[in-house]
């Protein structure tokens, strides 16, 4: 059974940084693209970033480009989201997800993912 466990969320002031981690088990991690999504109460879950199975290709939603960096360590079965220059509008529950198919270069939406973590709260105060 696939399990994804996020950690690293918390409360930070605007302009600060956080690094989220997502540890995966139950699937050959290095064969699957990974993604980070976020959700604010009352709104749909939003794509934030994805990384290809090899780590070569990354994608970001426009609002986080230049501030967030997604990376992965296939030896540790872990994907990271480094978040810098945080803004109050980044406040959300952040979820990691794993692609349902192997060897894709990009994730563009949550429908492409079949397992999700439990989420970690990120709160940015102004």
Task: Please state roughly what percent of the residues sit in beta strands, choosing from under 5%, 5-15%, 15-25%, 25-35%, 35-45% or over 45%.
Answer: over 45%
Q: How much is the average pLDDT?
A: 96
Number of strands: 11
- Please give the count of helices: 0
The largest β sheet comes out as: 7 strands, mixed
- What structural class results from the helix and strand content? mainly beta
The SSE order reads EEEEEEEEEEE
Q: Which residues form runs of ≥5 with pLDDT under 50?
A: none
- What distance lies between the first and last C-alpha atoms, to the nearest angstrom? 40 Å
Task: Give structural notes.
By secondary structure, the chain is an all-beta fold. It is 0% helix and 53% strand. It contains no helices and eleven strands. It has strands at 3-7, 10-13, 18-25, 32-39, 46-51, 58-60, 68-73, 78-83, 92-102, 113-116, 120-125. Strands 2, 4, 5, 6, 9, 10 and 11 form a seven-stranded mixed sheet that branches. A four-stranded antiparallel sheet has the order 1-3-8-7, with no helix packed on it. The N and C termini lie far apart (40 Å).
What's a concise summary of this model?
The chain has 126 residues and is mainly beta.
Write the layout of secondary structure elements.
Layout: E1 3-7, E2 10-13, E3 18-25, E4 32-39, E5 46-51, E6 58-60, E7 68-73, E8 78-83, E9 92-102, E10 113-116, E11 120-125
């Amino acid at each position: 059974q696939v399990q994804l466990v996020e950690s690293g969320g918390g409360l930070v002031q605007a302009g600060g940084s956080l690094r989220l981690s997502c540890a995966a088990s139950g699937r050959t991690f290095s064969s699957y693209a990974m993604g980070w999504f976020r959700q604010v109460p009352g709104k749909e879950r939003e794509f934030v970033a994805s990384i290809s199975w090899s780590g070569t290709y990354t994608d970001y939603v426009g609002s986080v480009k230049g501030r967030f960096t997604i990376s992965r360590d296939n030896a540790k079965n872990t994907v990271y989201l480094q978040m810098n220059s945080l803004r109050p509008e980044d406040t959300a529950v952040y979820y990691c997800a794993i692609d349902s198919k192997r060897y894709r270069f990009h994730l563009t939406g949550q429908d492409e993912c079949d397992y999700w973590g439990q989420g970690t709260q990120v709160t940015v105060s102004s």
